[in-house]
Amino acid sequence: MFRETFANVEEKGKIMPEISVIVPVYNVEEYLRPCIDSILEQTFTDFELILVDDGSPDRCGEICDEYERTDTRIRVIHQENRGLSAARNAGLDQMSGEYVTFIDSDDVVAEDYLELLFNCAAEYKAQISVCQMYEFQDPEMLLKKAAGTGEKRVISGQEAVLDMYMDKKEVPVNACSKLYHKTLFDELRFPEGKLHEDQARVPRLLFMADTVVISYNQAYGYRTRASSIMHSKFNVKRYDDVEAVEGCIRFFRNHQNVRVADAAVNRRNKLLALYTLFAYRDHVHHEVPKKYRMSQYQALKYLYKNLTDDQYTYQLAKVHPTWLLPHVYLRKVKRMLGIKVPE
Fold first, then answer.
1. What is the pTM of this model?
2. Cys-Cys with 214: which of 11, 98, 153, 155 at CB 3.0–4.6 Å?
3. Cα atoms in the Cβ-side hemisphere of radius 13 Å centred on 180
């Protein structure tokens, strides 16, 4: 699957870039310039930047065209609004790099982001290299260079999937903050018309990789915004996430990997329980698809048995903060009586 070469590839007389950077662009006029500038300031310069204007209603398309006129490495694709997956797929169809990375248009990267990921891939002949993400709101929090000790971990793709499903945080489910060898996308694209497209594809991409190298340096800046999908009122479209995991379960079972499939089943069940609580909290539980419905009691019971105490307390605080104090007191009483509680 993996081509053991890290030199530029010449095709039809044209020198191809090592890395294709794909940035889907939609309704982020306020944040787009910092994103593009952070890419153009990279210490690693052998890349092409593909900006996909996904029918943005603001001035994003004009801004993309403006940058294209100033740097020959930039290509702009304009298309009707079809969503994040379609924008990424459009970039994949047009890319010419040996590797590809995805950057969201309201995020930023440290100036050595590409250098870090590329050097990791080259050193270990890895199909995927991963760096750590950091959240920011204030521009003053931006990292000029990747922060960390330079430590790395080299594992198989299947181990990476297990780590992801176990919430070890070293390999997030996000498509961003990773560098992929192009062959991983030979027969794979992101699902269109769905939320949580990363959940549907990133586990498969990791699974197909022989080697994954993890850098513990923070090089990808993830902008947190109150208006983002993850910070808005719960919408039953979030159950696309569960459907995405179910697709991965079938994929792992078809590849006869019981261990990874079981880990995906646990992720699915945890999501079902959490989403049940969110749906009740925001009074949309009646809109939940019938096949995914469960009671609050069932959801809390599952989470209590399958999360650590800190994890359970954290989730309880998000969905039922008034229940938090009784929960803490109950645990103290159980410990006093010698009753075992999850750790």
1. 0.87
2. 153
3. 28
Concatenated DSSP letters of 32-94:
HHHHHHHHHT-S---EEEEEEEES-SSSHHHHHHHHHHH-TTEEEEEE----HHHHHHHHHHH
Residue type, 224: T
The kind and range of the H/E element at 215 are strand 212-223
Hey, how many other C-beta atoms are within 10 angstroms of the C-beta on 151?
9
Q: Give the orientation angle of helix 309-319 with respect to helix 324-336, to 10 degrees.
A: 150
Q: Which residues pair with 23 in a beta bridge?
A: 51
Query: Average pLDDT of each block of 10 consecutive residues along the chain (343 residues)?
Result: 39 73 96 96 98 97 97 97 97 97 96 97 97 87 88 96 90 96 96 90 97 97 68 83 96 97 96 92 92 91 83 75 61 58 53
Going along the chain from its start, the domains and CATH numbers come out as 13-231 (3.90.550.10), 236-336 (no CATH)
Residue 162 neighbours by CB distance under 10 Å? 22
Three-state DSSP state, 154:
strand
